[in-house]
């Protein structure tokens, strides 16, 4: 699972990407870093790891991680091949969710591609290009699917119905993610990789004197997100870039001076994790305490498979307790003695924060 960072030129997109990846490399013994010029692995901060470590000694602590892709800047006409249009759209098609960086600050030294700062206009520019690209693809698919329905293909008929629903929305300027498709219909069109079907997180990039995100520019982004099923995170990319380059002690001092409890990048990472439909479970022992990403609704064998495919194939059962149980009883032995250690089988749906031991053949 990976998310793509998009935005118009000069909105702070690459600054944010570089800060996210370099902060990960500095802040953890896990190899979080840029693994290609435009791809990075980013840690997902989780205070529960420290809670577990208070009761279980270990050699290393590893947070969960997500993959981010810094996608080339978009210009108007991308859906028709303008600029890096086709490359831009192909990169978005390959990610599972979108982080759209939106400029919410005035700065005469940083020119805006459209000559003025208007975050909702910027969002609409990118959204329009995605909608136009999707509309072309949906219309092409409708034409091909109609031929199949003439032969009595029931699956094709169902796909055609779903495609027509998407076309109605796209014609009205609405994204596919706003179309109330059921699970079967979503499967039927999933192969198209429709761009506007992807979930979106709006990252409002503010200036240094507005780290809390007040003012009309951010308010406009919040209103747009609320009306279109999106979420908003406030970031000052310039501050985050500076923080990512500081040693831990200086970083904490700077955060305190700004009245911030943690870098805003932590909120970006957690929001992106949620956007991708992920949750964490933990393994804990003397070698390492580690958070593992798993899709919400995944079963215990599927979670075991995240660690190693053999664990899923030979899954027998899972022994599970919560972080709250560990806080209360202090040790795994005490949790077991109190009858709080749960034994779960193959149909168990993992819960966020489960601490697990997997038994496998």
Report on this structure.
By secondary structure, the chain is of the alpha/beta class. Helices cover 44% and strands 20% of the residues. The chain has 14 helices and 13 strands. It has helices at 13-27, 48-55, 85-93, 119-149, 154-171, 183-190, 216-227, 237-244, 248-258, 264-275, 300-307, 309-313, 323-329, 332-337, and strands at residues 2-6, 34-36, 39-44, 61-62, 64-70, 97-103, 199-205, 231-235, 278-284, 289-295, 315-322, 342-344, 354-360. The strands form three sheets. The chain has a seven-stranded mixed sheet, sandwiched between helices. Strands 4-10-9 form a three-stranded mixed sheet, with helices on both faces. A three-stranded antiparallel sheet has the order 12-11-13. The longest helix is centred in the middle third of the chain and has 31 residues, at 119-149. The radius of gyration is 23 Å and the shape is flat.
């Amino acid at each position: 699972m990976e998310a793509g960072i998009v935005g118009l030129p000069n909105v702070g997109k690459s600054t944010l990407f570089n800060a996210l990846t370099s902060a990960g490399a500095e802040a953890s013994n896990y190899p979080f870093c840029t693994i290609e010029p435009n791809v990075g692995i980013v840690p997902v901060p989780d205070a529960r790891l420290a809670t577990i470590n208070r009761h279980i000694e270990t050699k290393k602590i590893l947070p969960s991680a997500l993959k981010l892709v810094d996608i080339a800047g978009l210009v108007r006409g991308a859906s028709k091949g303008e600029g890096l249009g086709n490359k831009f759209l192909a990169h978005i098609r390959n990610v599972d969710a979108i982080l759209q960086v939106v400029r919410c600050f005035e700065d005469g030294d940083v020119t805006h591609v459209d000559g003025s700062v208007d975050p909702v206009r910027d969002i609409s520019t990118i959204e329009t290009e995605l909608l136009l690209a999707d509309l072309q693809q949906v219309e092409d698919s409708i034409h091909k699917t109609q031929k199949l329905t003439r032969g009595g293909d029931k699956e094709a008929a169902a796909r055609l119905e779903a495609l027509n629903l998407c076309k109605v929305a796209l014609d009205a300027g609405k994204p596919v993610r706003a179309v109330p498709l059921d699970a079967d219909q979503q499967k039927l069109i999933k192969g198209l990789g429709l761009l506007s079907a992807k979930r979106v997180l709006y990252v409002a990039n503010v200036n240094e004197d507005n780290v809390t995100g007040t003012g009309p520019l951010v308010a406009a982004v919040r209103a747009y997100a609320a009306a279109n099923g999106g979420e908003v995170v406030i970031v000052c990319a310039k501050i985050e870039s500076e923080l990512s380059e500081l040693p831990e002690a200086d970083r904490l001092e700077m955060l305190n001076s700004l009245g911030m409890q943690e870098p805003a990048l932590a909120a970006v990472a957690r929001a992106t994790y949620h956007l991708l439909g992920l949750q964490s479970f933990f393994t804990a022992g003397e070698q390492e305490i580690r958070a593992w990403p798993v899709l919400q609704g995944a079963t215990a064998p599927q979670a075991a498979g995240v660690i190693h495919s053999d664990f899923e194939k030979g899954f027998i059962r899972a022994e599970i307790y919560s972080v709250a149980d560990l806080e209360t009883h202090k040790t795994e032995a005490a949790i077991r003695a109190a009858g709080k250690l749960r034994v779960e089988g193959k149909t168990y749906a993992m819960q966020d924060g489960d601490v697990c031991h997997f038994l496998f053949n």
